[in-house]
């Protein structure tokens, strides 16, 4: 229910009962609109209206989102299972968009409670004591989402709560009375959504307590049976690696999670580019040519396929996001010190190595070779792959022959873009190819395209490279190529 202006002004139960949505209702009437029902109703409305369900979630339209919608329509709790950097947390947080704008809850209690059918002892006592003068407050949807990152040291007290002897003495209640409890995160998420990230990291006894409070409505805290029939939607995320590396989900809890939804990395470079462009933060005046954006995204795809990179850990989508940010920052630094225009180039991508090495877990072979060496090799392969898609049919025989004649070319790293473009005319055909790739009259973009072309030829083993110096391929490489062509 989306609150109207009249509802927003309601401060007591009497005022609330005068609104159309609550007309005819009475205290303790037993009619409770559960969070799952609320989400289902709003989801149904959005589907019929053709509205966007989860803004900012890209690449899951035909895979994850249909399964997620099915789980929500079925009023199920669910778990998102996938490797790091697959937007699991973003999806969980996006579900708050399916809650009402605001809902009324009893004012003056720690646990958000229904104004007509409270589940907590404090709420029931206040309703009985105040009647129609019960004070209420309006809870916005942003405050109805509670998230907890699971770690092995999380306790039952953190999630459910603990007995507070001082509170019991002040109220004159027994220690087993829920009014004597200091509530944890889960009761404070009543009337909302409670998310647990990395579920498998929770200790088994905490998982059992979580299951008991949700399934049976009771839990034992320090030997006292506590009963709380919470109205909360529970959602989880977990990494498959956790099941063997750090922990597991206990069977009773796993059995009662309605749907297990598998997430994945972008299946297409273009989708990955959309995600990276959406999530990256950089100065607005920095130009990132399309072929550089594609190169940066292809680096993540190549890393995921590289045998030296641990596939169980995965290569997060944060790799291209961080790499684009660092490459753009390096281009900005160059422009500030007068070493070229603010256009991202291949050399800036190499300057972003720290954004790559920190995002890859290496296998034994990769550890032996070193993270920097593996990252540079991945950049080379990515450049070759993107070059193949953009210029695979281009005639570069004259250019290659020039290098094979013993010529070398040191790519200009600083100075005026116009001067750098003049320097590229030394290499036959490079200027013309750069103009074709750049599709821009801007010399700085054409310089970036020229460097990308040489890097692409290096990636396809038609050239060799030593820092910014390009030369003919090594003799053994030429022989291998000749053998294949013959």
TrEMBL record:
Entry GO MF terms: ATP binding; protein kinase activity
Name of the featured protein: Magnesium chelatase
PANTHER family with a match to the protein in the record: PROTEIN KINASE PRKA, PROTEIN PRKA
Organism superkingdom: Bacteria
Signal peptide: none
Organism, as annotated: Deinococcus koreensis
GO terms for biological process, alphabetical: regulation of DNA-templated transcription
Record domain Sigma-54 factor interaction: where: 178-240
């Amino acid at each position: 229910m989306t609150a109207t202006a009249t509802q927003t002004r309601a401060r007591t139960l009497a005022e609330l009962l005068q609104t159309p949505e609550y007309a005819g209702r009475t205290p303790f009437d037993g009619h409770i609109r559960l969070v799952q029902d609320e989400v289902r109703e709003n989801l149904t409305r959005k589907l019929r209206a053709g509205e966007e369900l989860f803004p900012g979630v890209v690449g899951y339209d035909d895979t994850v989102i249909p399964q997620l919608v099915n789980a929500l329509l079925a009023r199920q709790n669910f778990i998102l299972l996938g490797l790091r950097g697959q937007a699991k947390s973003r999806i969980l947080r996006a579900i708050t968009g399916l809650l009402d704008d605001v809902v009324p809850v009893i004012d003056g209690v720690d646990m958000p409670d229904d104004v007509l059918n409270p589940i907590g002892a404090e709420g029931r006592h206040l309703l009985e004591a105040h009647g129609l003068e019960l004070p209420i407050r309006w809870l916005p949807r942003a405050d109805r989402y509670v998230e907890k990152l699971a770690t092995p040291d999380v306790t039952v007290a953190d999630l459910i709560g603990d007995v507070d002897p001082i509170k019991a003495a002040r109220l004159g209640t027994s220690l087993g009375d829920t009014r004597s409890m200091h509530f944890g995160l889960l009761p404070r998420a009543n009337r909302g959504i409670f998310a647990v990230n990395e579920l498998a990291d929770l200790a088994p006894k905490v998982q059992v307590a979580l299951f008991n409070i949700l399934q049976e409505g009771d839990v034992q805290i320090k030997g006292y049976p506590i009963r709380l029939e919470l109205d909360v939607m529970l959602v989880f995320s977990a990494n498959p690696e956790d099941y063997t590396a750090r922990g597991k989900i206990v069977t009773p809890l796993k059995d009662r999670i309605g749907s297990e939804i598998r997430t994945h990395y972008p299946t297409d470079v273009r989708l990955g580019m959309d995600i990276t462009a959406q999530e990256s933060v950089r100065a607005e005046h920095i130009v990132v040519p399309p072929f550089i954006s594609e190169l940066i995204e292809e680096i993540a795809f190549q890393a995921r396929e590289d045998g030296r990179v641990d596939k169980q850990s995965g290569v997060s989508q944060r790799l291209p996001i961080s790499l684009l940010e660092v490459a753009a920052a390096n281009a900005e630094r160059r422009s500030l010190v007068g070493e070229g225009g603010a256009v991202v180039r291949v050399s800036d991508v190499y300057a972003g190595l720290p954004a790559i090495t920190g995002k890859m877990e290496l296998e034994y072979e990769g550890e032996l070779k070193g993270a920097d060496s593996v990252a540079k090799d991945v950049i080379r392969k990515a450049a070759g792959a993107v070059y193949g898609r953009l210029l695979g049919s281009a005639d570069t025989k004259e250019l290659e022959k020039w290098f094979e004649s013993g010529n070398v070319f040191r790519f200009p790293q600083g100075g005026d873009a116009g001067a750098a473009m003049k320097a590229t005319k030394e290499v036959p055909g490079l200027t013309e190819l750069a103009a074709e790739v750049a599709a821009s009259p801007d010399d700085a973009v054409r310089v970036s395209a020229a460097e990308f072309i040489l890097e692409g030829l290096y990636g396809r083993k038609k050239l060799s490279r030593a820092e910014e110096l390009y030369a003919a391929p090594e003799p053994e490489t030429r022989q291998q190529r000749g053998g294949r062509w013959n």
